[in-house]
Design goal:
The complex is a heterodimer.
Chain A (H helix, E strand, L loop, with lengths): L19 H11 L3 E3 L12 E3 L2 E8 L5 H10 L4 E4 L15 E3 L5 H5 L6 H8 L5 H4 L3 H20 L20 E3 L18 H15 L2 E3 L3 E9 L2 E11 L2 E13 L8 H4 L11 E2 L10 H8 L4 E2 L12 E2 L3 E2 L17 H4 L4 E2 L7 E3 L14 H7 L16 E5 H7 L14 E4 L2 H7 L11 H17 L19 E5 L3 E2 L5 E2 L6 E3 L5 E7 L13 H16 L10
Parallel strand pairs in A: 3-4, 3-10, 4-7, 10-23, 11-20
Antiparallel strand pairs in A: 1-2, 5-6, 8-9, 9-10, 12-21, 13-20, 14-15, 16-17, 17-19, 18-19, 22-23
Helix pairs in contact in A: 2-7, 2-15, 4-6, 6-15, 13-14
Chain B lengths: L5 E3 L2 E4 L6 E3 L3 E4 L1 E4 L12 E3 L5 E2 L3 E4 L3 E4 L2 E4 L5 E9 L2 E3 L2 E3 L2 E10 L3 E6 L5 E2 L3 E10 L9 E6 L2 E7 L11 E9 L5 E9 L11 E10 L4 E9 L10 E4 L2 E4 L5 E6 L2 E8 L3 E2 L3 E5 L3 E9 L12
Parallel strand pairs in B: 1-13, 3-14, 16-22, 23-30
Antiparallel strand pairs in B: 2-5, 4-10, 5-9, 6-7, 6-11, 8-9, 11-14, 12-13, 15-17, 17-20, 18-19, 18-21, 21-22, 23-26, 24-25, 24-27, 27-29, 28-30
Classes of the chains: A alpha+beta, B mainly beta.
């Protein structure tokens, strides 16, 4: 296996701070080239030529659950590889995941635990017509996914990933126990949200460790700005442009560019392509560590790529949108809490108050009105939360949702409604009366004040339901507790967007396909930016990342015009 | 030869639009800006502020750029009187360097509106036996956190005052300034849902306040005939389940250490619901025409993992 050209010392996580001069001197050793490109190309390409700072075989955009296996596999197949990531550290959302890898097909651990499974069973599960999460599967992708599961498990083990030997079944289309949880990374300071079962850290750190050992270069704080193609809508992909701080860094890819940027849920404009209701107030899971900005999709679409199986994004099932579990903070995604010792805490600002029982509160919308049964976690709840509520200035999206509760609820939930548990700067309020509470609520997404009278009426009506023992408005199951004892609280509880379930069209080798159905030579995609498959979680990212890396590495080296 | 200074106009404005109205006793924060043709010296200018109460101040211009001089924050405290108030900024005619400035005047007008008051009513028992006395707690709050000790609150039913009391000496525990009292009321003689209105008139406070009203309700029930004893046990172990909520429509009770709850009820048909987080308990229909006991089996379900559906 040859060393990558443009090589630098690897294995040091802080190596991302490299000066422009150093880049240029290193890339001179690697062979800086200029290539003429089409005049219609955007961004850095618009001047008609690109000066490459690095040239390698394969460039991977994104050092997460798809990007790391793509890079390792490409390297295993003899390619020189650079991964770029805009973040200061690796992992993407995988770093913050629970590490639940849905991998099966009859691999060694399943056999050890007497779990009967086959690739055909995986295929059968994920092409089911009677389950929302599999109706719109691209069956060509599912076939190769199923056939690659066992090899993917073996590959994870070979690359140092360790699993807890306790299987479970995911509540999706699967009919066999295939969830295996990775062991959390052993160095707490390198787990972004330590002490909160972020076992995915053990997945991505092990892959990072393996990638670095094998000579994959990881350029952190490098944000991809465009994918360079020979011509705007034709020819092969040549490389990418990035910025490191304010410094442009352009990387040529002799064999391929692999988009593993992680999805689009943080991009308001992009997500509204699929669902116009998803306006700015809905937050993205895993912020502020990871932003899913649709960068890869947009850059690929700029050069002709197609989206695929977009119905998956709006199936109304699964985890595309989730209830806020930790109220009173901006990012209260269910299984993720940034404790005060997390490096993310200064941005997250609060842990939130973890709700154990939805009986302890009501939810009101931006008008101070109840809108649904608070105990319901189905997509009917989200439809109601995003429903039109009479604001003629906001026809799409439902505006902020606030959890309203009283002093007795705080005691029952054993909460401490003060920092660091809550964020009083826009996401948590308290007051002596409900009327006063309404007047205090000020938040960037709360465009108009809540009427004290409206909030008082909503609570009085709910208290009447508690008294009578029945909720005649929304059928909440035996409403138990009145909201009456001061002080009163309002906590941010607006739903949070999670899974990206659609993305770029690829073939079974993860090669990106354009809007005319033609493969874009030299461009690949894996992970949440890839369309065709609505399975929640990590496995599809790993499987298609491996496929992309393998195929790209085996491509005959392209003759990049102008390369020295 | 004597050189006559050139005359210059100075324009005064505040940094952002002031509110049309603000609560009496509150403050409106502004910064005064003076602008005149670029290049003119303004560093020595001094403004005067005439407040509605007749006081004067001399806010200093702290920042100067090419065209604008700006003061720091100036607090315009709205007097304790409802109506329009005018703050007048005056930059007297003066000469600076070789420039003669004419007098400039800016009036800032804000209408003083009353402070708000609001109410909370809590510890309302329910159900209440028809005709029986019961107590509620009532608190009143000033939006300016004024002390409300000794102020009256009234409870009305059907437009008539049925109870009145003075607010206590200190705010309710955990609140900033919610002054409160406990009043005794009498339940109506007819069963059904009954509502009351609470009123706080807020007259005579140092700052003018709007009054407040609020409502509360309680279920009024006939006198009980029988005692229902409910025992809640856990299915797998037959151990008593304590602190489970027992509901029969408006009637409610909580199980004690032996898993027992007693409820006095009139005869009739009821749906019995028992609820405790972490348990699954089926509702039961009861026909009650004598003292009775019922055992309810609660199925312990694994503590809900809030993340189960969503874990990655």
């Amino acid at each position: 296996m040859g060393k990558p050209t443009g090589d630098r010392a690897s294995g040091n996580r802080t190596e991302e701070s490299v000066s422009r001069r150093k880049f240029l001197s290193q890339s001179a050793a690697a062979g800086v080239g200029a290539v003429a490109i089409g005049s219609q190309q955007a961004g850095a390409q618009a001047n008609g030529s690109i000066r490459w700072d690095y040239t390698v075989d394969v460039v991977v955009i994104g050092a997460g659950v798809a990007g790391l296996p793509a890079a390792i596999t490409a390297r295993d197949n003899g390619a020189s590889v650079i991964i770029v990531d805009e973040n200061y550290d690796i992992g993407g959302r995988g770093m913050l995941s629970g590490g639940r890898v849905q991998v099966g097909g009859g691999h060694a651990l399943q056999q050890k635990l007497n779990i009967q499974d086959t690739p055909d069973q995986i295929f059968a599960d994920w092409v089911r017509h009677d389950h929302e999460e599999s109706i719109f599967s691209d069956r060509d992708l599912i076939r190769v996914f199923a056939d690659e599961n066992v090899a993917t498990y073996d590959w994870l083990i070979e690359n140092g990933v360790e699993f807890i030997e306790k299987p479970s079944r995911s509540p999706d289309a699967a009919t066999v126990d295939r969830i295996f949880v990775t062991k959390e990374w052993h160095i707490p300071s390198q787990v972004i949200a330590p002490r909160r079962n972020r076992n995915g850290s053990g997945l991505v750190r092990r892959m990072e460790e393996s990638a670095r050992k094998k000579g994959v270069q990881i350029f952190l704080k490098h944000k991809m700005t465009s994918i360079v193609r020979e011509k705007h809508n034709s020819g092969r992909v040549l490389g990418i442009t990035t910025v490191n701080g304010s410094n442009p860094v352009n990387i040529a890819a002799r064999k391929g560019v692999i988009v593993c940027t992680g999805g689009h849920t943080g991009n308001v404009n992009f997500r509204r392509i699929f669902d116009p209701r998803l306006t700015e107030e809905y937050q993205q899971a895993c912020e502020p560590y990871v932003h899913q900005g649709a960068d890869g999709e947009l850059a690929a679409m700029d050069i002709g790529a197609s989206l695929w199986s977009t119905a998956n994004q709006t199936i109304g099932e699964g985890a595309a949108i989730t209830k806020t579990r930790h109220v009173g903070c901006r990012w209260g995604y269910s299984s993720l809490v940034y404790e005060p010792d997390s490096p993310m805490f200064p941005q997250a600002r609060a842990t939130g108050l973890t709700v154990r029982d939805w009986q302890n509160m009501i939810f009101v919308n931006q008008n101070g009105q109840r809108f649904w049964d608070e105990g319901d976690g189905s997509h009917k709840f989200f439809a109601a939360a995003m429903g039109y509520n009479g604001d003629k200035t906001k026809l799409n999206g439902g505006g902020p949702i606030w959890a309203i509760f009283d002093a007795d609820a705080v005691i029952r939930e054993k909460w401490k409604p003060a920092p660091p548990h809550v964020d009083p700067d826009g996401y948590f309020y308290s007051a002596d009366t409900l009327s006063e509470l309404a007047g205090k609520i000020k938040n960037p997404y709360q465009k108009k004040p809540i009427s004290g009278e409206a909030l008082q009426q909503a609570v009085n009506r709910y208290n009447g339901f508690v008294t009578a023992g029945a909720d005649t408005d929304f059928k909440k199951k035996t409403p138990q507790f009145k909201i009456e004892k001061p002080p009163f609280y309002a906590a941010w509880a607006t739903p949070i967007l999670h899974d990206t379930l659609t993305g770029l069209r690829t073939d079974v080798d993860s090669r990106v396909v354009d809007t005319r159905g033609e493969v874009i030579q030299g461009l690949y995609c894996a992970g949440e930016s890839q369309g065709g498959f609505a399975q929640h979680g990590l496995t599809r990212c790993i499987v298609f990342g491996r496929l992309a890396g393998r195929h790209a590495a085996r491509v005959k080296v392209a003759d990049i015009s102008g390369q020295r | 030869m004597t050189v006559r200074p050139a005359a210059a106009l100075v324009h005064l404005e505040v940094n952002e639009p002031t509110p049309i109205e603000a609560a009496v006793g509150s403050s409106v924060v502004v910064r005064l800006r003076a602008s005149c043709p670029a290049g003119r010296a303004r560093s020595g200018m001094a403004a005067k502020l005439l407040s509605p109460d007749g006081s004067e101040a001399s806010p200093a211009f702290a920042k100067h750029d090419a065209a604008i001089s700006e003061t720091g924050d100036i607090l315009l405290k709205v007097p304790p009187r409802i109506g329009e108030h005018i703050w007048r900024f005056v930059l007297p005619a003066h000469q600076l360097a070789r420039t003669q400035y004419e007098e400039a005047v800016l009036d800032v007008r804000v209408r003083g509106r009353p402070q708000a008051s609001s109410l909370a009513v809590w510890d309302v028992p329910s159900p209440v036996i028809a005709g029986a006395p019961f107590k509620v707690k009532i608190g009143a709050k000033s939006s300016a956190d004024c002390g409300l000790k000794g102020r009256d609150v009234e409870v009305l039913r059907g437009g008539e005052v049925v109870a009145r009391g003075a607010l206590g000496d200190a705010p309710f525990a955990g609140t900033a300034a919610l002054y409160w009292t406990e009043l005794q009321l009498g339940a109506p003689r007819e069963p059904g849902m009954a509502s009351w209105t609470v009123r706080f008139q807020a007259e005579g406070l140092e700052l003018p306040h709007d009054g407040a009203s609020s409502t509360f309700s309680a279920a009024i029930v006939p006198p009980p005939d029988h005692t229902l004893t409910v025992k809640v046990i856990e299915k797998a172990t037959a151990m008593p389940v304590e602190v489970a909520l027992v509901r029969l429509g408006a009637y409610r009770a909580e199980t004690g250490r032996a898993g027992l709850a007693e409820i006095r009820l009139p005869k009739g048909r009821y749906e019995l619901n028992v609820w405790k987080a972490g348990y699954e308990i089926q509702p039961t229909t009861l026909d009650l025409d004598k003292d009775a006991s019922v055992e309810i089996v609660a199925l312990l379900v694994p503590e809900e993992d809030p993340d189960a559906r969503w874990k990655m």
